[in-house]
Amino acid sequence: MKSLMLAILIAVMAKAAVAEEVKFARPLGLIEVDVPAGARVSREIISLGSMLFFEPRLSGSGKTSCATCHDPAFAFSDPRPVSVSDNGVKQIRNAPSLYNVGYLPVLMWDGRFLTLEAAAFDPFKANGDMGIDISQAVDFLNADRTYNELFTKAFDGPPTGERMAKALSMYQRSLVSGGTRFDEFVFWGKTQALTSKEEAGLEVFSTRAGCLNCHDVFHPMFNPLGGGTALFTDFRFHNLGVGYVAGRHGDIGRFYKTRDPADVGAFKTPSLRNVELTAPYMHDGSIATLAEVIEFYDRGGTPNDHLSPSISPLHLSQEEKDALLAFLRSLTDPNAKVGSASLPKRP
After folding, report:
1. 126: pLDDT confidence band, cut at 50, 70 and 90?
2. How far apart are CA 114 and CA 232, in angstroms?
3. Contacts of 317-325 spanning 24+ positions with Cβ under 8 A
4. Which among 82, 147, 154, 297 is least surrounded, fewest beta carbons within 10 Å?
5. How far apart are CA 341 and CA 73, in angstroms?
6. How high is the pLDDT of residue 32?
């Protein structure tokens, strides 16, 4: 009887260890990442999601993974102007950084997905980026003994498309990045955290350049009292005229989702955290450097019938441009500067 009770106790403890709940990191300048109601967050799920994220065998060629377009060496963004699918076909958009993606109310440049779980299926659709569909991905995982064990440990069951999406999504929610010198300056009141040039750049950012019109630092969605976190986005969509050539937009942007004429050529405002690491810039990767981005805004973008009303020529001095550039570089999290050594081992 004692042996039976001991066996039951060991089994219960083992299951409890598997289901160990964890919380995502909360660095200075950010609040805790929210998760879908009823969702379980465990080390096992996040670890499995990491394995899947870097797994090239989940592609038709066996050479493409999520990390191919969301490279950790570039703050989980794509250093190429536009991403390239597994079959070698160039896409029309650049893959943005995944840092702090768990805070976003909508995903993709056009906002067509409301959850990370929904977005996780997109690369595995017919003719998708990974070169295989979700059923083929699940077949591979079920045929792999190690992945079967990992899924069973994380979810108490074998690989499925839904569980795969959950694991990938929880891993992406764990990619939290803050704690920059800007955060020390604002949230700790550490006046020496920014150089005099960077502080001057913050002044330009907040006033003359009008950056706060879109790259909102203290958004009411997370800051009803005006403080606590800084994501540098208004979560909205704006037309800057990027890609507008010969009277037409090369990419219709938000209009793809809403079919509202006001959304033609409008794209989601990206966060500016770690922006120094995520070149090239804009939805089509058409601007190579931050200095060129500043020049683009200084010109007032590219005029067109749907240009955002917040965009107009700035007429900044070179000194103001240099200060603004210096400030933007202060938004880099030292921990975001990673390379291939951060990749997990394949099973």
Report:
1. confident
2. 20
3. 320/200, 320/204, 320/208, 320/209, 321/291, 321/294, 321/295, 322/197, 323/197, 323/198, 323/200, 323/201, 323/203, 323/204, 324/201, 324/204, 324/205, 324/209, 324/211, 324/294, 325/201, 325/290, 325/291, 325/294
4. 82
5. 9
6. 87
